[in-house]
UniProtKB/TrEMBL annotation:
This is Tryptophan--tRNA ligase. It comes from Paraburkholderia humisilvae. It catalyses: tRNA(Trp) + L-tryptophan + ATP = L-tryptophyl-tRNA(Trp) + AMP + diphosphate + H(+). Pfam families: tRNA-synt_1b (PF00579). It comes from the Bacteria. Its EC number is 6.1.1.2. Keywords: Aminoacyl-tRNA synthetase, ATP-binding, Ligase, Nucleotide-binding, Protein biosynthesis. The gene is trpS2. GO terms for cellular component: cytosol. GO terms for biological process: tryptophanyl-tRNA aminoacylation.
């Protein structure tokens, strides 16, 4: 069993493209801090990404390196965090198979996160089976490492709830505590809106700012941000609620008093959108410049990055393998 005196963290991202600022505020900042406080495993979820991308598998495999570069560039230390590739740890697939026997189709269809993702993709009833069951795959990823903490956005809370349901069902069925329940770790800003203000930030929706964005790309994204459509003149009072620029300032500007004063001025009237956007642009440029430079430096040595992933995957297999042995023993499947 895991020593619960030391928290174990499992987190990861679907490898459908480079990471963006939504990931950064959602969990990346927390992951950088947690690596100094806990035993952390970071999963590159290429298998999970294939559940709705089987038509372009090579794009998914190429993005493994892109996501790894983003992790390293924001400050993940491979000597403190184990970064590994999901598809290269077959123990996770076997554990998923056992957990699938503990959940019904109806329960999977009721998962709010899955329901929303199905709606966004327009699947209706034509849902890939792998996509529908990915809460179970995610549960296997978490339980294989006996993780006690999982940094997530608030939209992922139903996934954590379902993971703990499966843990309890498994432990009850084998009448012993084999798997460990986990707790969600929510960021101060659990969800960042897209620059269009219509949905959460997402690369597929074209409303994201990537961590590797160039200075010009940042300027364009900030200028395109949705504000208050009724704030037509500088003198007009403006709405802060639903204003994407202020949502970003809340997320990224550490000077809370400055943001509070800007909001008050905007509400009273007399503060133009261009001034607020200029403030945000300066903050994002300062945040992303060192990340972008570090990422470019790391990208010059792709073999070195792959070596980090290889070492991490070996360690991940050892840990997941030990849990799988416990699971199979509890199920009476240890024959030799």
């Amino acid at each position: 069993m895991t020593d619960l005196k030391q928290p174990v963290v499992l987190t990861g991202d679907r490898t459908t493209g480079p990471l963006h600022l939504g990931h950064y505020v959602g969990s990346l900042r927390a992951r950088v801090q947690l690596q100094y406080e806990a035993k952390q495993f970071l999963l590159l979820a290429d298998t999970q990404a294939l559940t709705d991308n089987m038509g372009s598998p090579h794009r998914i495999s190429r993005n493994v390196l892109e996501v790894a570069l983003d992790y390293l560039a924001v400050g993940i230390d491979p000597t403190r965090s184990t970064i590994f590739i999901q598809s290269q740890v077959p123990e996770l697939a076997e554990l998923s198979q056992y957990l699938l026997n503990l959940v019904t189709l109806a329960r999977l269809e009721r998962n709010p996160t899955i329901k929303e993702e199905i709606r966004l993709r327009g699947f209706e009833r034509d849902i890939p089976a792998g996509f529908l069951t990915y809460p179970v795959s995610q549960a296997a990823d978490i339980t294989a490492f006996k993780a006690t903490l999982v940094p997530v956005g608030d939209d992922q809370l139903p996934m954590i709830e379902q993971t703990n349901e499966l843990v309890r069902r498994f432990n009850n069925s084998v009448e012993r505590a084999v798997l460990v329940e986990c707790e969600a770790v929510l960021a101060r800003v659990p969800r960042l809106p897209g620059i269009d203000g219509k949905a959460k930030m997402s690369k597929s929706l074209g409303n994201a700012i990537q961590l590797a964005a160039s200075p010009d790309e940042i300027v364009k994204a900030v200028n395109d941000m949705y504000t208050d459509p009724n704030h037509l003149r500088v003198s007009d009072p403006g709405r802060v609620e639903g204003n994407v620029v202020f949502a970003f300032l809340d997320a990224f500007e550490p000077d809370i008093e400055l943001v509070t004063e800007l909001k008050a001025q905007y509400r009273r009237g007399g503060l133009g959108d261009s001034v607020v956007k200029r403030e945000l642009n300066e903050r994002l440029q300062a945040l992303l410049a060192p990340i972008r430079e570090r990422r470019l430096e790391l990208a010059r040595d792709p073999a070195g990055v792959l070596a980090i992933l290889s070492r991490g995957t070996v360690l991940a297999r050892e840990t997941a393998g030990a849990t799988l042995c416990d699971v199979k023993a509890a199920l009476g499947l240890s024959y030799f």
